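Batch job 17 of 40 flagged for manual review because the log was empty.
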Amino acid sequence: MRNNNLKGTGVAIVTPFTKKGNVDTAALTNIVKHLHSGKVEYIVILGTTGETATLSKEEKQLVIDTVIKANANKLRLVLGIGGNNTAEVVETIKKTDLKPFEAILSVAPYYNKPNQEGYYQHYKTISQATKKDIILYNVPGRTGSNVTWETQVRIAKDFKNIVATKEASGSIEQIMKIIKHKPKDFSVISGDDNLTLAVIAAGGDGVISVVANAFPKDYSEMVRLSLKHKFTEAQKLHYGLLDITDQLFADGNPGGIKYALSLLKKCESYLRLPLCEPSDKVKQALKQLIKNYK
């Protein structure tokens, strides 16, 4: 049987920066503690929301070390290791101490735009490079092409240490086809906060969330209620956060969530180029929505 410890709410944790542009380890520690008190199930380090593309090798290790120390073995941890150079991904996996981590989150190769056989062979190669569990991450809006449901199911059936998919295609139809045809012990994780309730209702297993950086308690409770099929109660929390989540992504992620976290006094909203802060319109909308929340 595959790993069943990835149900519920995982949080794609942000990487806070100081005004001078350095990793803000104090703020990162506070956010980890905020996630503890919010009772999420696990933390994903060095994902898209963590601005991993702009971090140096040394900064990545600093983020890893800071989260591990702050977490103090309270929550399961997942580490993002992905890219569009298969050999480099394999090398990084082999050189990384993976003992503290439940699994690797590995994004589908981007920019190269491989065909479906290319996706299959990429995941086959990284699967064979490690015994650690792997979560496939399909996000066509960022990678430029889609890993089809057929390819994802093929990968799921052929490689037992590929235990889940984080599905951010935005297509409920594609997600339902994966759920229908996948092996029973393969998990389907929502990659879109506002679709999570629908994904779980269709048979999914949870989410890797952005909005839960800011509202871990309510969002993770919504997910737990959904997994218990208590959808009437879950809907109240889902719709309570729906407009906020829309605005978080209205002018780019993680600009929206970092601004929300700054309003909640969890970290500053600084980003690294080429990312810039959201527009004044989005900021004003977030400020009003968060003020009126609850």
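Reviewer: the log was empty due to a logging misconfiguration, but the result itself is present. DSSP finds twelve helices and eight strands in the chain. Unflagging and moving on to job 18.
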